């Protein structure tokens, strides 16, 4: 069945629902986009419904958050639609991060990168495969620089003086190629594992019992 992308109206609805729960620690649409990008480009896809507590923050346990079962279902359907939009974009080499402009009209990319970093934490051990790959590890650099720029511990911030506008522009334009590179890296590993499993299955009957 072909996927029907979310409309602009759908995205406005999703954004306003997320914004309604901002005080509960809910992700913004930008942060959610980074989070889903990490889950889909990374080692193993985790379904959106499994991540509701992380997405909604304290609103997940608030019975008054959604007035009815149907309104919660509609919200989950919007999440799935956005998830599928990212999956399709990655498959066709067209992924672009959803970056919101601030009051000054400029995007910083911090929310998106922090969302991506939160997605990585779910499968921390598996992501170490990328950190340990000398040729591909630099793909994470633009994401990590933006993700840790606002870290509460100054020691954890990669650049003591922050990111200047020229470097920020460079980092933001590197996000899309980085995500595609990360997606290709883990897709190749998955293909290799599948091949090895198939070969083992083919050899199985020949073994003496």
TrEMBL record:
UniProt cross-references to Pfam families, sorted A to Z: UPF0149
Spans through the membrane: none
Name of the protein this chain belongs to: YecA family protein
Superkingdom classification of source: Bacteria
Provenance organism: Chromobacterium phragmitis
């Amino acid at each position: 069945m072909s996927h029907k992308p979310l409309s602009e109206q759908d995205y406005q609805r999703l954004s306003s629902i997320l914004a309604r729960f901002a005080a509960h620690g809910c992700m913004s649409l930008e942060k959610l986009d980074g989070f889903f990008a990490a889950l889909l480009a990374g080692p193993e896809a985790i379904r959106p419904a499994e991540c509701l507590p992380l997405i909604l923050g304290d609103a997940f346990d608030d019975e008054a958050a959604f007035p009815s079962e149907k309104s919660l279902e509609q919200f989950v359907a919007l999440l799935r639609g956005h998830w599928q939009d990212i999956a399709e974009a990655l498959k066709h080499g067209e992924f672009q991060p959803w970056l919101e402009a601030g009051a000054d009209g400029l995007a910083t990319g911090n929310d998106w990168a922090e969302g991506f970093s939160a997605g990585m934490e779910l499968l921390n051990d598996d992501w170490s495969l990328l950190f340990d790959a000398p040729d591909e590890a630099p793909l994470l650099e633009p994401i990590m620089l933006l993700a840790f720029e606002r870290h509460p511990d100054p020691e954890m911030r990669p650049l003591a003086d922050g990111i200047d506008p020229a470097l920020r522009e460079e980092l933001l334009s590197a996000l899309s190629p980085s995500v595609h590179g990360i997606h290709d890296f883990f897709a190749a590993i998955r293909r290799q594992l599948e091949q090895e499993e198939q070969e083992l299955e083919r050899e199985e009957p020949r073994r003496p019992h």
